[in-house]
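Weekly structure sync, notes
Attendees: PL, DS, HV (note-taker this week)

Item 1: DUF4004 family protein
DS walked through the input record. Source organism listed as Paenibacillus azoreducens. Sequence as pasted into the shared doc:
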Amino acid sequence: MNEEDLISKKELLELTGISYGQLYRWKRKNLIPEEWFVRKSSFTGQETFFPRDKILQRIERIKNMKDGLSLDELADMFSPNLGAESMSAVKLIERNIVTIFSLELFEEEMGQKELLSFNDILTVYVLHKLLQGGEITREEGKMLIAVMREHYGDLAAKPCELALIRKMGVPLLFLTESAEQIYFDKDVKWVFRLSLAASIEELKLKLNEMEA
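Item 1 (cont.): predicted structure, written out as tokens:
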């Protein structure tokens, strides 16, 4: 991670207005992942840094939501663990969580289900996001469904990424615990890298908003 992608603890506290005690209480409650606390050498000795965009977004969300939810509820919201919630396809459409197009594509590959598990909902949600953003084609969407069906169970509850690369127009979609240390030849183009933990967090927020 580049230096400009990091923010020091001192700057973070000044910028967000939270206290040292709040920061570490939220860490103990698993609202802020342990791996975001990065110890680095500085001219004053050891200093703690954080991934700038992630920590600023997380603290903003905590500040906005902490009056309506307990810290334990927030921790569950931000956890990469799948929720136990299930929902019918009709409700997912009614609540604008996914589109009919993405749901129909999912059902073509997986068959119709009376209730979709949280894992199914996550797959359709990610499919919906990438199709809507124009980052994948319909055929690549089918690849996504297959990869999630066959491999996500091995990485569930871990901070994994879904990624798509192309070489000479040929796509390769894969799941990995981290794409930071993967290198390809110069003809390979990264199309997207998507944090599934962040997608789970987004999805839980949407489901929670709808329930409120």
